[in-house]
Fold this protein.
Amino acid sequence: MSSSELAKVARAMVAKGKGILAADESTGTIGKRFDSIAVENTEENRRAYRDMLFTTRGIGDYISGVILYDETLRQKSADGTPFSKLLTSQGVIPGIKVDSGAKDMALCAGETVTEGLDGLAKRCADYYKLGARFAKWRGVITIGDAIPSASCIGANAHALARYAAICQEQGLVPIVEPEVLMDGSHTIERCEEVTEWTLNAVFDSLYNQRVVLEHMVLKPSMVISAKSCPVQASPQEVAERTLAILKRTVPAAVPGIAFLSGGQSDELATEHLDLMNKLGGGPWALSFSYGRALQQSCLKAWRGAAANVPAAQAALAHRARMNGLAATGQYRSDLEKKAA
Ligand code: 13P
C-alpha cells in the first residue's frame, strides 16, 4: 500500500459521523460475554454472532471499520461470503487485532506488558492478503498503590511504537491503543496524571520508531473516575479533562482519536464523546472505537436465538447511530427514550 493509501484509510476510519466497532474479542473474552447470556462458546456460535453484527442493515452509515479477531477474519457469512468481503461491500473497512494479549510483566508486580511482536511483519502481510487494512494493539496501564511504574509505561509505549512501525511498513494503518484502566478506586485527578504521562511516553516512542503520525489512529481511554471511586466526576468534567489532556499530548498531525469504552455504560460512553465534540473537539476527529458500549444491548437482545436477530440488529443499529451523532456533537439523550 502506498503512503497516500495509508493516509486515506486512516482518514476514512474517522470519517465525519462514523466510528469503529471493536468486535475483536479473543476466544476467551467472547466466552465471558456468551456466559452472560448462557450461550455456548463454540466456533459456530461465534461465527453466527459476528454474522448477525455484520449483516445489520445500514451498518456502514455510522460504522467506518470493524476490528476482527484472527478466527473471524477467516470466517464466512451464512451465504458463504467471507466476512472481510461482506464488510467491504458495505463500505466498512476490515481491521485485525494483532497483539497476543497483556501478560504479567517481570519484576513489576500487578502490571502487564502486551506481547506479540515476534513474527508480526509476516502476520501483517498475511492479514493484508485476507483483506485487512488496519490493525489494533492494546497496551494496558493499571493504576494502584505505587503503580503504574515507569518500567511498565516505557515497555508498553515501546511495544506500541514497534507494532505501529511494522504495521505501516506492511500496509496496515495501526490503531495505537494505550488503555489506562478504570478498575480501582482512584480519583479523576490521578487518572488525568497517568493518562498524560502515558500519552507523552507513547508519542515519544512513536517518534523514535519513525511512525508516521498521519497514518495512524489513536485509541485512548477517557480521563475518568475509577469505577470504585467514591466521588464520580460529572460527564462535563470527564469531557473537559479528557480534551485538555489530549490537546497537550496528541500532535495535530494525527487524523483521528477513537475512544475505547473501557467499561462505561452505553449511554455514558456516548454522552462523553458528544460533550467533547460539543466543546469544539480538537485538531483531530474525535470518534469512537467501542466494543462493549456498542455490543452490550445487542448481545442481550440476541441470546443466541435466530428469532432474536432482528431485535439484536436493531439494538446495534441504534447504538451505532447514537455514537455517530456523538461523533459530531449532535447527540441528544431524548433520542434514547424515543427508541426504547
Ligand atoms: P471496549 O470499548 O469494550 O473497552 O473495547 C474496546 C477495545 O477494543 C478494547 O481493546
